[in-house]
Structures are given as C-alpha cells and as structure tokens.
Amino acid sequence: MLTYFPVPYEDELLYSCVARYALHTGQADNQKAVIRDIFGIGTAVAIPDIPSHLQDLSRNVSRVWKTNVNQLIAEFTLAPLYFPFLSEMQVRQTISSMASKEGGKIHTRMGLVASSIQPPTYFRFCPKCLEEQKRILGECYWLRKHQLPSIDVCIKHNCKLENSNVYFHPKQKHHFHSAIKECQPCTAQAIEVNKDERRLIEFHEQLLMNPILQGFGPNRWSLFYQSLAKDLGFVHKNRVQHHDINLFLRKKWGNSRFNVYLDEDNSNDWITNLFRKHRKSFHPIRHLMVTSVLMPERTLSEVLDLVAKLPTERIEPVKITVPTDMPAVQIKSHRDEWNKLIEDNPAWGVKKIRTLSSGSRVYAWLYRNDGDWLMFNSPKEDKSTMRRKVVDYQDWDSKNVINLEAIYAELVQSKERPRLTQSYLVKQLPRANSIQKHLIDLPQTKQWLDSHAECLDDYIILRLNTAYRIIIEKNVEVKRWRLIRIANIREELITNRIENEIQLLENKGK
Ligand SMILES: [Zn+2]
Which long-range contacts (CB under 8 A, 24 or more apart) does 475-478 make? Predict the structure, then answer.
C-alpha cells in the first residue's frame, strides 16, 4: 500500500504519473522497485496507451488516491479514443483485461495491431506546453492528447508536436520514462490549421475529455452511416452514391495535412466500406474525418448520442408465408390461440401443451395448414424438466466481473441513479438470484462487489452534488437547508464527512 502517489495533472497519462512517482521517490534508476511499489508484483509492463494491472494499481494507491479501474481508464489512458467504435463485447473484454494482470492481447483484440494507422513512434510534446508546465508546475508530464495516432499538432498553440527521445512502444517495456528527462526544449514550429482540421482535432480531444466506456458496435454504425447518406441526399433509388461521397470527402481533405488518411495502403476503399454494412471496426480517425465534415452543425456528443439510440442488432423481418387456400382470418385465429397457450404456460414444451385438449386441436390444425409458422413458433424444450447443467463457476465468475464492469461504467455516469448497493448491482446481471445464492462460489464477483458497492455516505454525497447543481441552475443561494431538502436527506444520517461536504458546497456556491 503506497503512502505517496503524485496527484495527476489534467489529461495526464497514467504512465506519466508513474514516471513522476519514480522521480519524486528517487527511484528513477530502480524501475524494478517502482513496478513492485505500484503494482505489487515485479512483472507488470510499462504500456502508455492501453495499460493493464489497473486493479492492482488502484488498490495500491487507495490510501492516497480514491480511484477505480473505470476512472483510470476513462481519464488517464487512450482507451476512450477507441471505445465507441468497437463492439460492446470488445469494450467489455478490453476493460476486463486492463483491470487484470493479463494485458498481453489487448492491442490485438482491439484491432490496433492489424490497423494501418499506428501509434506515434516516439512520445511527443508541444514545446510551448512544455515550457508552460515547467513555469507553472515546476515539472513536466506526458499529455494524452499529444500521443494520439494521426494527430501531430497542438491546437492550443498552433504548433507542431515534437518527438521526444523515448519510443512510445519500446522493446524494453519495464521503464517509465519521465517527460522532464526526455524532452529537449526547442523552438516551436508554427502550423496553420484550417477550420476543418481544427474541428477534427477537437473531435479527437473530446473523445478523451468526455469519455464513453461503451462500444456501439458495427450494426449501429452501419445504420448510422446509411441514414446519414440518405439525409444528405447521397442516396439515389435506394443506392448509396459512394462516388459522390468519395468526391466530397476528397475535396474536403485532399489539400489538408490529413490527406494521407484518405487512402488505405492495401487499396481498400474505406470510405465506401464505411457506408456499407460494417464487417469490422474502423479506426477513430476514419469516423471522425467523415462525421466532422458531413455533420458540420453537430457536436461530437450529439453525433454519438444519435448512434447510441440505434438498435444494436439488425432485426431481420420474420418471413410469414400464408397458405393461399386457407382464409387469412382462420390462420390468424389459430396462431393467436397457439401463442396464448404458450403465454399461459411459459415453462411448458410442445409435448406438454399438446396434452391439453385445446393444445392438441390447435397444434394439429396448424401442423396441417401452417406448418412453417408452427415450426418457428413453438417452445423448444420443456423448461421445467430441463436437465440441470454442470456449472462452470470459474467461467461464470469471470463473466460476471466483465458484465459488472460494463454495467457499472454506464450506471456510475448517470446523475440520477439509485444507490449502487451490492444487491442492486447483482440484480443487473443475468441469473441474479442464482448469483446471490452462490456468491461464496464466485470469489471474483464477490471481491468486485465488495470494492465497488457504494456506502450510504458516498451516495448521500452524490445526491448533495446533484442538489448543488440544481440550486446553481436555479440561480438561488446555496444554503445548508436547501441542499438537504433537495437532496432529500434525513438529519440523523448526516455524519461528519457529509457535514464537511455540505460546508464545502456552501462555500463553493458563495
Ligand atoms: Zn501546446
């Protein structure tokens, strides 16, 4: 358990915090000790963009920094740049690998290894930002937004990002290099950035500043681009006019510093593929180059909100064939009757339903006159007599943790949510009742719940902060009684910690 860890700066890479820890504790030349301090074991590796071992790290720093895996991922790694464009499953697996000790396959699983767009070769910095950091903070750090693949400009200072002396993905992965040692002060090279380029870079930065720990998946993105093409008049006779879209985008980006990303080196035309049904995920820059110029009136959050509202799975229309020699109304009444029987006996299979006299009659009629429909609309197996399967607790256990991470990421962001107690969190999982009964057989799930379930104090503080926002929005004075009333807290629940928070909010509101 650490008694010291540096307070992270805005947009700082976690890697950079560890590097500063090494410097501050005088252990920069003893990286083995640093890794043992931070991760509790000697085998962790120094990965700047999508690191692992985050559970260990958050536990080890917990005495001086109350954080958790999701916060670390969202605020101090580059994972949020990629998440919205991946599938839900990829994101869950990535979060779970980043939390765990097994981070080896993360980059491959996210499709980053196979991508034609690679991370920068060296850690980068902006000479002016560096100078500012030194002057204001007395030290330097690695910013996330300076390490984005495909972006090489600091838009705060309109200058080129410079390479440092350190490889971003070095062969020797056990060293956390600090910015102050590895960046040589130099003159900034001014860069002209046009409106579109600036917006594209801002979109990248917004992914980091407003992180979403969720993958929208290929179906949503396919539907999104198809409807975008339609809205913009790029669809003629139900066909997407790929050529026109291509021309438009080439005109926008052809003369910009991003023109290299228009072509893919294996001659695949990604723009065309983006507007077809997605079979794989696309690199963030592809999405952002298209959305930033095709939707000039929208903010990135608005774009992502639109995508999030689309269905995750394509719902295939059910083919209904009505036999021609039978009146449709008769078919319908038998189908309705059959559906009702299934509904009334949810645990029954076909065999058991046929033991009822009405069941046997309807079944026989449908079998003769509407066999195809019957085949697709019959319960498969008698659920009440289904054989009990042997339970693979280990598998169940790890799946629960993956699910919990994803559910938690979403819940914790919502401003008006119930208290995240153990039982509430469990209830969000499939087979919640069984999990509750078998918690003793599910050690990882149990441990996750113990470390994430919210205590009453935490929850009250959350409500106080929501109340504070409401009061500020209403533009009235922040008063203790007002905070308590809006947050709906009973006086007897106010502990010292809560009282301090109230005073803090009162002072903040002055
Ligand atoms: Zn700068």
Answer: 477/509, 478/505, 478/506, 478/508, 478/509, 478/510
